Amino acid sequence: MTSDDSSADLLLIGRVARAHGNRGQVIVNPETDFAEARFRVGQVVLVGPAVRPVARRITAARFHQGRPVVALEGVETMNDAEALAGADLWMPAAQIPPLPAGTYYRHDLVGCEVRDARGGVVGLVTAVHGPIDRCYLVVAGARGEVLIPLVEHICVTIDPAARVIVIDPPPGLVEANER
Questions:
Q1: How many C-beta atoms lie closer than 10 Å to residue 53's C-beta?
Q2: Which residue ranges make up each domain of the chain?
Q3: What percent of the chain has pLDDT above 90?
Q4: Which CATH architecture does the domain made up of 106-176 adopt?
Q5: How far is the C-alpha of 179 from the C-alpha of 17, rounded, in Å?
Q6: Are 58 and 42 spatial neighbours (Cβ–Cβ below 8 Å)?
Q7: Span 10-95 CATH architecture
Q8: Which of 20, 39, 60, 90 is in Cβ range 3.0-4.6 Å of 68 for a Cys bridge?
Q9: How far is residue 65's CA from residue 56's CA, in Å, rounded to a whole number?
Q10: CA 13 – CA 28 distance, rounded (Å)
Q11: Within 10 Å of residue 4's Cβ, how many Cβ atoms?
Q12: What is the pTM of this model?
């Protein structure tokens, strides 16, 4: 089955790492802080490039060493699973539930302008990396990429609706984290 709404805003939730076993299961490298919710039996994921993904229902799921091991509808053999190695796994943004106040999805932060507490522009968020307890913003700054820890005492205002993040970094943090 193919996804009927190719214009939907899709969110990357993982990538197929490799086949697992001989029954068509795959190991997934999750790109989400909510792997248990995204990779559960019955969940439909979109597999492949975002321009033309194929919808597949998860028919079995378990976790091994922190990574999901899933069986996908229509993927029955090791050869089928091996063909999916490197494939992106997506979900429509509309299917992602809202978070509690003060928490944010990574995709909500990408594209936000980062300013310092004095109003100076640091740059635009291009990505958010790291696990939930050690996240950092990847910011395209005027002198290159800057890594900013996503912690409350540094990121003092986060307003995804206004597309702005205000930081109050300790002296030298921005310069030390430029790449």
A1: 21
A2: 10-95, 106-176
A3: 64
A4: Roll (2.30)
A5: 28
A6: yes
A7: Beta Barrel (2.40)
A8: 39
A9: 24
A10: 10
A11: 7
A12: 0.68
